[in-house]
Amino acid sequence: MTQSPTASSAAATPWFVVGGAKLVVMSLVTFGMYQVYWFYQQWTRHRATTGATIQPLARAIFGPVFCYALFSRLATAGIGVGLLGAVAPDVLAVGYALSNLASMLPDPWWLLTHASVVPLLVAQRAATAVALRAVPAASLNDTLTPLNWLAVLVGGTLFLSTAAGVLLPGALNPQSHLYLAREAERATQGLPRMLDAGTELMRVEARQRTLVYTRRLVTRANRDIDRAALQTTLRKAVTADACADGTMRGYLDDDVTLLFAYRDRNFEDVLSIDVRPGDCGR
User: Fold this and answer.
1) Counting CB atoms within 10 angstroms of each CB, which of 11, 31, 222, 223 has the fewest?
2) CA–CA gap between residue 275 and residue 277 (Å, rounded)
3) Is 65 a residue whose pLDDT tops 90?
4) Do residues 273 and 238 touch, judged by C-beta distance below 8 A?
5) pLDDT-derived band of residue 116, with 50, 70 and 90 as boundaries?
6) Segments making up each domain of the chain, as ranges
7) What dotted CATH number matches 178-280?
8) How many Å apart are CA 132 and CA 138, to the nearest integer?
């Protein structure tokens, strides 16, 4: 079975061709995974064209490490077709590395990591120009395939909900795990800290429709604790405190359960107390 001229010529292009809009969309909805695919395709085409002894998959996975080498090759190739200065490999490499590091920033600044597609767009301009000069009939690869559309549907929904949660907190369902995880992360800042002389707040975690506050009784050991008596005493105090605290009361009013998990001074489980939305009254 013979390939069509378009298919065979597309396979023979010296560099991977993809439309700019498609590159941006796929990068966003896959949370950057399409960029790994992009690097893999570029290195694979380069190896096939030049016979270079390289491992495309490894170079794709470690994109920030090898991006300068790829951008340099594309800059040289671009000059050959008249794109003088269109690709500045050092600038693109630094921009790509920094935008990847942005993923470690707190809300909302970690969203800047999605700017990592910008250096790829610049490099793609040279890749496309060189590829089309070599194979004029090559496909521009600027339309979405059925698999691409599936990624857009699933990943796009997740991307938009995540971005909304960061940029528009009020747009999230206050019972959703995403919203509660953000609240837990905020509450965890500055922990551990002492609530009183005998109780330390260790961490706050999110579960479905539940926030878990882990506390440690810093002066008491399991063997010395009367659990029944402590349960009775703590339940009254914890419920009263939760209902009186503006932030916690807000969670309860949103039908979120607050679970207080107590540990002894040796970090062993002691007991748990849950405060439910109806415990404060309306």
Assistant:
1) 223
2) 7
3) yes
4) yes
5) very high
6) 5-170, 178-280
7) 3.30.300.250
8) 6
Over the range 90-115, which residues count as b (16 or more CB within 10 Å of their CB) and which as e? eebbebbbebbeeeeeeeeeeeebbe
* Phi, psi for 210 (deg, rounded to 5): -145, 140
Q: Where are the alpha helices (DSSP H) in 81-220?
A: 89-101, 117-134, 146-167, 177-188
Pairing of strands 210-217, 257-263: parallel
How confident is the model at residue 282, as a pLDDT? 53
The mean pLDDT of the chain is 91
Q: Does residue 241 carry a pLDDT above 80?
A: yes
Over residues 88-107, the mean pLDDT reads: 93
β-strands 210-217, 199-207: how paired?
A: antiparallel
Q: Which residue has the tokens 């009183």?
A: 196
d(CA 81, CA 107): 42
**C-alpha to C-alpha distance for 42 and 56, rounded to whole angstroms:** 8
Residue 169 has pLDDT above 70, yes or no: no
